Amino acid sequence: MVNSPAIALTIRKATVEDAVLIADISHETFYETFAPSNTKENILKFLNYQFTKGKLITEVGMPDNTFFLAYNGKEVAGYVKLRDASVPAPLKNKKALEIARIYSVSSMIGKGVGKLLMETSIQFAREKQKELVWLGVWEKNYRAIDFYTKWGFQNFGETDFLLGDDIQRDFLMLKYL
Fold first, then answer.
1. Does the pTM exceed 0.70?
2. Which single residue of 43, 83, 89, 118 has CA 20 to 30 Å from 99?
């Protein structure tokens, strides 16, 4: 019988000093999540032109963005980017917070990282006195859609997402708090 190491998840709010780490984990988790279902050319174009490390580093210091990092011991296990900026037209008069990105590193999927990040996001939204949280998710990211549905998110629309040269459809989902 083999004992697996214990999972000791913690979370902390990121600072601008974490910008390079967040950029690196953003690239890693995006690639791990979407490369198997997309062409190499579109993934590389997206990562090298649309989702560059420079752009990601800049995001960390922007006033409308808040990042939280999840750790398993001393190892980064995932992150969430929350954005308190513009909202889709159907939510125009709502106090809403966007869960812009929520990712777990592949080795930690199914070990509670997503749950911890979602709990933190919802708590943060409540502290900001938001009515709801919302997000966009690729229509073919079935695992994520299932995760959000279990958390009580409901579809309220859709939008286009450009991945390289491929225009994809994202579902827009919301959860009232």
1. yes
2. 43
Contact 137, 148 (CB under 8 A): yes
pLDDT along the chain (177 residues), means of 10: 66 95 94 94 93 90 95 95 93 95 93 96 98 97 96 97 96 98
Which position among 71, 79, 103, 148 bears the catalytic label?
A: 148
Q: How far apart are CA 94 and CA 156, in angstroms?
A: 13
Strand partners, 99: 82
State the CATH architecture for 9-176. 3-Layer(aba) Sandwich (3.40)
**The pLDDT of residue 143:** 93
Q: Please report, for the chain, the start and end positions of each structural domain, with discontinuous segments joined by +.
A: 9-176
148 in active site: yes
* Residue-wise burial string across 35-65, b where 16 or more C-beta atoms lie within 10 A, e elsewhere: eeebeeebbebbbeeebebeebbebbeeeeb
Residue 3: what pLDDT? 43
Burial class (CB in 10 A: 0-12, 13-18, 19+), 31: middle
Cα distance between residue 86 and residue 92, in whole Å: 8
